[in-house]
Design a protein that fits this description.
about 230 residues; Rossmann fold; three-stranded mixed beta sheet
């Protein structure tokens, strides 16, 4: 196994994944750390679909392109992890194979409140009421099946979700739609933040195991699954 990305935003995955230049990666929850996506794209040449409705996340994506276009001289203005530069400076991503989708992930197409954190410097927001503060933006959301249809994709090779509590709802709908990415990397925020009184996290993990997934690694409820 190996960890790709920063201490904060990286993921433990199989060292030699079954990915190549034709593989399709859906990365839900961009924030201000795409080190995992950059290293994954550089290593495998795959196609990366970044999905996040926050303005700071979109700006961070643009700043990464500026960083590489400036021969790595550009200085990020966002709230960057201490090890971010060291993680990305030796990479050589092809940004022609990145796409940014300015939506939140949910189980249907609609608009929802996107709750902010109390500290305005923090980028993460949540579609789940009670995760953060009562202040919110209103954003467009959609499910994985619809986004795949919009982009003419018939499969996902790797799905990463760090979406601050919406993960269980999104995964339930994905499985209902018979979508089974080969690899799935999930941060289960509801249970981590003790916001899961109905044990939906346990239920969705059990469902994934019953439907053919195996747990490759569980790093404090940051779980990497592989579909066998």
């Amino acid at each position: 196994m190996e960890k790709l990305g920063t201490n904060y935003g990286g993921w433990i995955i199989p060292k030699n994944m079954k990915l190549n230049e034709n593989s399709i990666i859906y990365s839900g929850g961009v924030g201000e750390d795409i080190s995992f996506d950059i290293k994954l794209q550089t290593k495998y040449g795959c196609n990366i679909i970044l999905i996040d409705p926050t303005e700071k996340a979109r700006k961070h994506f643009i700043e990464n392109k500026l960083y590489y276009n400036s021969n790595k001289q550009y200085k990020f203005k966002g709230n960057i992890q201490n090890d971010y530069y060291s993680q990305i400076q030796n990479e050589n991503p092809n940004f022609n194979k990145f796409m940014y989708v300015n939506k939140g992930l949910w189980n249907t197409k609609t608009t929802l409140k996107f709750y902010k954190q109390s500290n305005p410097d923090y980028v993460s927001q949540s579609l789940i009421n009670g995760m953060f503060s009562t202040n919110y933006d209103v954003v467009d959301v959609d499910n994985i099946k619809n986004i795949m249809s919009d982009l003419s994709h018939n499969r996902i090779d790797l799905l990463k979700l760090d979406i601050e509590g919406a993960e269980n709802i999104v995964l339930e709908q994905m499985l209902d739609d018979n979508i089974y990415p080969k690899y799935v990397c999930i941060e289960f925020d509801l249970i981590l933040k003790r916001k899961d009184p109905d044990n939906t996290t346990k239920k969705i993990i059990n469902r994934m195991l019953k439907e053919g997934y195996t747990i490759f690694v569980n790093d404090n409820m940051n779980i990497t699954f592989e579909y066998l």
